[in-house]
Structure formats: C-alpha cells, structure tokens
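Same chain as my last thread, 256 residues:
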Amino acid sequence: MQNVTSADGTTIAYDRLGSGRPVILVGGALCDRQSFRPLADELASEYDVVTYDRRGRGDSGAGTPYSVEREVEDIAALVAALGGTSAIYGHSSGAGLAAIAASTGLPFTKVVMHEPPYGPDDVDPSDDGEQVLERIRDGRNLEAVELFLMMTGMPKPQALQWAATPGLADLAPTLAYDFAVMEHGLNGTGTPVELLRTIKPETLVLAGTATAPFMLDAAHRVVGLIPNATYAELPDQHHAVPPEVLAPVVAEFLRR
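reply #2:
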C-alpha cells in the first residue's frame, strides 16, 4: 500500500501493480481498492495499474465536508504521483466520477466509462436515493445496501445475499458520495449533457448486453454526447464482468 495526500490534506491509499503506461481504476458504490484487484492483476502484465480507496473507504481518510470536487482532487493527486498523465477506467458511479474528472481537464490519455448509471430524463434520481439515505441515518446500513442493490436492477434474492457480504454494510455511508457524483451536473436531466460534451480525451463507453436496460440506454446516450467516444458491448455480460473478459477489451483500447 502507498499513500498520496490530496489537496485538502486527506490521505488517499492506493496499490500499484505492473509496469508500462499508467491507468487508474475507479470503483463504484460499495467498492474499495481490493474490489478491482483481479482486474488490476489482468492488466498489470502490460500497464502500470493503480487501484485506490476512494475517500471514506478502506485505508483512505474521509475528509470533511465531503464534496465531489474533493474526489476529483484525490484523482489529481494520483495522476501527479504517476508522473503527470494517466489513463482512467471507471465502473458504475466510478465511471461518473471519471467523467467529472475528465471534464475538468485533468491530463488523461484515455478514458473508459463502464456502465455509468445515469437515469432517464423523466425519473428523479433523488427519490430512491433519499430512501437509502434515510436508512443510513437511522443506522440501518444493511437495509440501505439491500435497497441500493435492488435500485441497480439486482433481483431481491441476490441483493439480500450480496448485502450480507462481510464488511459491505460498513461502506453504506459512502453511498451518499456516489449519489452526489451521479447527480453532479444534471441540471434537471438524467444525464449531465454539458459536462459530457466537454470531455476531450478519446473515450470508450462499455456496457454488457445482459445488464439492466437503463444502463444500456445510458451508455448509448453517453457515447452520443462525448465528442471523441466509441461504444463497445460485452456480449452476455451483466453489470459485474469477469476480469478475464473485461481486461482484454480495456487493454486493447488503451493500447491503440
């Protein structure tokens, strides 16, 4: 484990594997740096791969008060530690955070957005989110995680099983951070249109054909908004993709 200090003094913990051109992996809701270790292992034969604990998770500090801008500063600190440039891969709300970071002009060589969970324009994303946050405020972290997983399209029996994973409920308070990320720049729509239009690096938008329909729809909307974006589908894959399936697609895009 290594550490960098973000602009507000918060310590951000990260692991670094492999060698080659650098790429930062950004996890989504309820993920820490260990969640992407299998993907990092697959990419490390060709790339200098960083997995990190987003603030408030794992070995990273929380910093107060929280803001999306502070999370972008955390990524900026990692880029600086890697020598000043890096590619970035984000999954789920991590893809939303990667998009925000890219829109600020951070020196990314390439961007991969894997199923950013933007909602339709006719759905208020705060409705279900407020129910999750209410359970967290009441100390019902397990219920909050269960509800959140069902919001993503996971069937209830599977959501109950996943929520019971040791340590997962401890991450429930950070769901507020993910909601803030996904609501950043919406301006009354389900997708941050103007934010996405400002992303300049070449971008790959990924989605699995077996994922929740709203995530497929979101991926199609996103690729139409980013000026230099391409779209790729992962056949028969859900929101979580085995690293041996995902890594070759990501590696090939970063390689070209």
